[in-house]
């Protein structure tokens, strides 16, 4: 054997040995992950760079960088960021495939990147591409769970995906048959509960991220908002120094009509410049101030959001809420000018944006009394809302839709006050007069009746009203209401 050939052979083996990639969630990678998932992205990026220097062959920094891109794109939706950062997902998937397939992290990391890519694609209007990436992620993590059943991080991803697939509305059923994805709410929730209650080292590392998914599932799918709020408190989730958890807690508190709690979380979060800047906070502050009819504060927050947000999600909804503020103040000129923006800006992917667009197209303004009552009820200020409607009946309103809205709104207020009998009576009347209406009130009334009967332990009646909700056609918020009703049926069927 010649010396030259021996030298070439030695170099080849040295390069091969050096090029062997690993998945090492080292101490530095763990620190980076905690910083990034708290939305302290700059500090996290510095630690990622440090981890690369410590071990150039470690592939975990790839997935950590993917988290950074994901949070920036998901929350801020800036098209220039999209152009610059979106190609990174495909590049990282290529790099991750260089790792050892014998590691549970091989398919786990690829799943996470595919999921992040899918979520970003939805935000930027690429639903078809998102569907395919969701399918890839679902298939990969399902196979990874079979191959590595003891690897608990599988549960954190597979659990929510099972739930999502199990609650796809009828309007999107073609996705499940096309992509071959079969979900299960019961199995998905069980996996998530196993994960967040585990003392496993990896479960502790991913606890905050898992809690983010778990709280949303329990709130929206399992319909247990109070349990979620207790979980946040009892598990001592850091809603001060972790902005991802602070956002989650704020968002859920707003949707739970706990306006003062939501405002407190926002005002008491760590305001350091270390955290990712996002206009989302202005949007949420707009909701909390509007819900107490503090219209001038809401105007300031909404206008700040619209001036700085580069994306499209909830833009129409925010413009509508802003137009309401001006309308309530009696500034019809500003209200109409803002309504024009509803027709031109944002998109119609979310139900809230679709509804805002439809309302703007109608050219009609809502009854002022009903609007104020709705806003106060949405904020949890039910005594004030009820006082506004005191002495009124459905016949006091001019149009069939206003009469329907009045009946539904009275039901919601009584419902939130725990007066079940009064709520059921008002809801039943709303269904009677609005079952064929394109407004959402009758369908939502049926959903709420199902929830009340579920709470009372009457599963059969609960299921019948969830089914009634689904049976109503061609109304606003059809997809989201069907999803909630489907989840209600599954809960009461043990599915």
From TrEMBL:
<dbReference type="InterPro" id="IPR019734">
    <property type="entry name" value="TPR_rpt"/>
</dbReference>
<feature type="repeat" description="TPR">
    <location>
        <begin position="443"/>
        <end position="476"/>
    </location>
</feature>
<feature type="repeat" description="TPR">
    <location>
        <begin position="404"/>
        <end position="437"/>
    </location>
</feature>
<keyword id="KW-0802">TPR repeat</keyword>
<keyword id="KW-0732">Signal</keyword>
<dbReference type="Pfam" id="PF13181">
    <property type="entry name" value="TPR_8"/>
</dbReference>
<feature type="signal peptide">
    <location>
        <begin position="1"/>
        <end position="19"/>
    </location>
</feature>
<protein>
    <submittedName>
        <fullName>Tetratricopeptide repeat protein</fullName>
    </submittedName>
</protein>
<dbReference type="InterPro" id="IPR011990">
    <property type="entry name" value="TPR-like_helical_dom_sf"/>
</dbReference>
């Amino acid at each position: 054997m010649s010396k030259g050939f021996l030298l070439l052979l030695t170099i080849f083996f040295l390069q091969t040995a050096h090029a062997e990639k690993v998945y090492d969630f080292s101490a530095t990678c763990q620190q980076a992950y905690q910083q990034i998932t708290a939305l302290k992205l700059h500090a996290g990026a510095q630690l990622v760079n440090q981890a690369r220097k410590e071990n150039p062959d470690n592939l975990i920094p790839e997935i950590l960088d993917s988290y950074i891109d994901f949070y920036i794109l998901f929350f801020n939706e800036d098209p220039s960021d999209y152009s610059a950062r979106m190609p990174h997902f495909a590049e990282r998937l290529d790099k991750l495939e260089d790792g050892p397939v014998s590691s549970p992290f091989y398919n786990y990391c690829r799943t996470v990147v595919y999921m992040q890519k899918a979520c970003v694609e939805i935000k930027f209007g690429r639903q078809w591409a998102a569907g395919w990436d969701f399918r890839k992620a679902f298939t990969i993590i399902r196979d990874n769970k079979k191959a590595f059943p003891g690897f608990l991080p599988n549960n954190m991803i597979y659990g929510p995906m099972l739930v999502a697939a199990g609650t796809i509305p009828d309007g999107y059923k073609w996705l499940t048959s096309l992509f071959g994805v079969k979900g299960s709410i019961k199995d998905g929730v069980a996996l998530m509960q196993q994960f967040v209650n585990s003392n496993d080292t990896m479960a502790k590392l991913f606890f905050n991220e898992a809690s983010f998914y778990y709280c949303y599932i329990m709130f929206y799918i399992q319909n247990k908002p109070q349990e979620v709020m207790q979980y946040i408190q009892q598990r001592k989730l850091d809603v001060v120094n972790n902005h991802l958890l602070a956002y989650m807690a704020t968002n859920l508190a707003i949707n739970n009509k706990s306006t003062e709690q939501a405002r407190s979380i926002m005002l008491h979060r760590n305001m350091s410049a270390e955290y990712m800047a996002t206009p989302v906070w202005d949007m949420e502050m707009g909701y909390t101030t509007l819900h107490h009819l503090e219209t001038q504060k809401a105007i300031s927050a909404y206008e700040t959001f619209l001036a700085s947000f580069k994306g499209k999600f909830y833009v129409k909804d925010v413009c509508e809420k802003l137009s309401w503020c001006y309308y309530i103040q009696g500034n019809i000129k500003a209200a109409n000018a803002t309504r024009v923006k509803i027709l031109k800006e944002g998109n119609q992917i979310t139900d809230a944006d679709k509804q805002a667009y439809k309302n703007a197209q109608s050219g009609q303004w809502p009854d002022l009394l009903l609007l104020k009552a709705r806003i106060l009820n949405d904020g949890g200020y039910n005594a004030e809302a009820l006082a506004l409607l005191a002495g009124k009946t459905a016949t006091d309103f001019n149009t069939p839709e206003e009469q329907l809205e009045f009946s539904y709104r009275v039901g919601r207020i009584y419902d939130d006050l725990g007066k079940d009998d009064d709520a059921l009576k008002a809801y039943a009347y709303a269904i009677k007069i609005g079952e064929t209406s394109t407004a959402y009130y009758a369908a939502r009334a049926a959903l709420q009746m199902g929830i009340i009967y579920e709470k009372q332990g009457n599963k059969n009646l609960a299921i019948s009203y969830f089914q009634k909700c689904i049976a109503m056609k061609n109304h606003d918020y059809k997809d989201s209401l069907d999803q909630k009703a489907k989840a209600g049926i599954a809960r009461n069927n043990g599915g």
